Amino acid sequence: MRRAEAVVVERYPQWVRLAYLTLPAGLGRHTRVLRAHRAVQQALRPAGRRAGQGEDPVAAVRTEVVRRAAGRMRPLPPWVGVWGLRMWPGAEELEEAARDLAGLSAFARAAHVLCHWDGLPGDAAVQVLAAAGAPGPAEAVRAGLAVAPRAAAGRGSAAGVHPAQVQTRPADLLLRSHRARAGWAAAGALALCAALVTASGEDGTRRPVPYAGAPAGRGALDPGRLVQVPGRTWSDTGRVDFTAWPARGGRTADRPLLARALATWGAPPAGADVTAAPGTTDEPPSRSPQLLYAGEPAAGAAVVVLLDGDRLVRYTERGASRSLDFVRVDDANVTTAAAVVLLRGADGAGPVRKLLGPWITSAGLRDLTAPGTPVRRLPVGADGTVTVPAGVRRGCAPGPVLEVASSARIVEKHAFLLADLGGVLPVHLTYTPLPEEAGVAHARQPREATGRAALERWAREACVLREVDGRAVRAVNLWDFARAGLPEGAGPAVWSCIRATHWTGRGDVLVRLRPPSGEPLTAARVPATAACGRFGQHVLAGTVWRAPSGRAYQLAAGSREVAGITASGSVRAGAAGRTFAAPAAPPGAEPPVLSARLHSGTVLTALDGGNGGRD
Q1: Residue (of 594, 468, 505) closest to 543 by Cα position
Q2: Does residue 257 fall inside a structural domain?
Q3: What is the pLDDT of residues 52-91, one digit of tens each?
């Protein structure tokens, strides 16, 4: 026990970092900090027993920390932490790393930290995960290693990149003095009602006992304290997002409905359906949320939409059933905060009711597979609601997308596309054309996909949207980064990179080669990468293409700054410029290694090289 205790004390920041990054990011920074410290401290006793049986104390502590952080931990009791105080790590690199790892399993996150941050060899990490109870330790290590490490990885606690040093702030200063005065009186009542889940309110509705981890308690769950902004706030602010939405709907004054919504949020009753998008916490609010909508979008159904900081919460009643949906909305803007799905058909079919942002002046349907078809206008209700009829799906493409236009008070002549991919929030579709078509030689930002060229390109790539997780993704951009003539005079082909940007900041990319006829080829598929985005504007990708003659060719292409491409390994060749073509390697040979030289002299590796194309 003493040996294990000495190891915990000596490497405490390292163990807390391991636990913090292994825990899911959706818990929130405050809860993760507390649970990480708790996991390390609870690891001491079993690690001491293992060390007493002859196991290396470092390995024993490491295994127990992973076991607890990757397993199901009980909710934190209310006395853990400091009442009314929120905490989070001071090192921003940890949050960036947590966002990178959000799509991995807990054991894969642990493997990433063990290998990339703590310098553990892959085979040793497999042994740790196996001892910690991972069902597939080798697969978890491979998944963890596939995510490129942050620059901070490996610098250790000396650089301060660990959650043992925290920043703090009060959760709710306005209510704390009131709670202090009421604390002793409430203690007796809570002891008496500890076995009860709900208590009656003045209006006859039932409200939850405060959630143990929510310092705001009943104050934040009081419908009388819901925040409502004036109706024209959106037209006189520089922050055009959900915070500028007024409260709309026919039941914004229905106190019993609002109380039921907040009560379900505070303590979901048995049978309530609660879903949270990736990277989103479902904890009760720490302060009074903002009311965005309360009404009946369809007969027999009531919906309440609330905003809590960087989360949007949708509460739905259908008969006796209740459901809650939590999604992230941090850094939302005029396009990504332009609509919310209020209600779908009970079986997922039928029309969809949506609520548009207050700055949206018109809406219509556009068939993504028929770019020449005009927009079919939809009537918008006085409260901003619109009914999207069930569209006919064409093959693998999604249904019709919504084309909306912003008020001239926001952006003049601004229209954009919103695709309904099954989430609470629609996904913004954009397009970046070839540099030569844009008439520029420098980087361009994605543009709205409403022009003729953009619609024609999206019509040919619409099927990729079926692979997009509509719960997690905020925008999808189609970037045509190169055009090249195919060997044997087979005509021009376009290389494109399709990037799905998540609300967490994660970006997943799919690189495709589209010949003048036939099906497109997938050149690369890379999750959690900066490539093809604002911070990854240089890209190289390659694939094997078979000509009508039957000959196979190794093709490659790069973005505008690529000056030359080289293949090594099973194919040895080079070419000046942004495109490359050479006879492919024999069947069964290892794929060649592709690299490119930029005009700056920097070397770029191909996206399918396993490192996301980073230098």
Answers
A1: 594
A2: yes
A3: 777 888 888 899 999 999 886 655 554 344 444 455 454 4
Q: How many CB atoms lie within 10 A of CB 517?
A: 8
CA gap 485, 419 in Å, rounded: 33
Domain that holds residue 250: 197-320
- Please give the model's pTM, rounded to 2 decimal places: 0.68
Kindly report the number of other CB atoms within 10 A of residue 222's CB atom. Answer: 16
Parallel, antiparallel, or unpaired for β 521-526 and 290-298? unpaired
Residues facing residue 411 across a β-bridge: none
CA–CA gap between residue 267 and residue 209 (Å, rounded): 7
382 pLDDT tier (thresholds 50, 70, 90): very high
Sign of the dihedral defined by the CA atoms of residues 31, 34, 36, 41, in that order = negative
DSSP 63-105: HHHHHHHHS-PPPPPTTSS-TTEEEEES-HHHHHHHHHTTTS-
Dihedral sign of CA atoms 163, 169, 172, 178 in order: positive
Q: Tell whether 104 and 227 lie within a shared domain.
A: no
Residue type, 332: A
pLDDT digits (tens, 9 = 90+) for 476-514: 999 999 999 999 999 999 999 999 999 988 999 999 999
Residue 601 in contact with residue 589, Cβ under 8 Å? no
The answer to whether residue 237 sits within a structural domain is: yes
The total number of structural domains in the chain stands at 2
Q: 523: closest CA among 508, 545, 506?
A: 545
Whether residue 611 is contained in a domain is answered as no
Residue 140 placed within a domain: yes
Same domain, 159 and 222: no
Cβ-Cβ contacts under 8 Å for 105 (sequence gap 6 or more): 140, 143
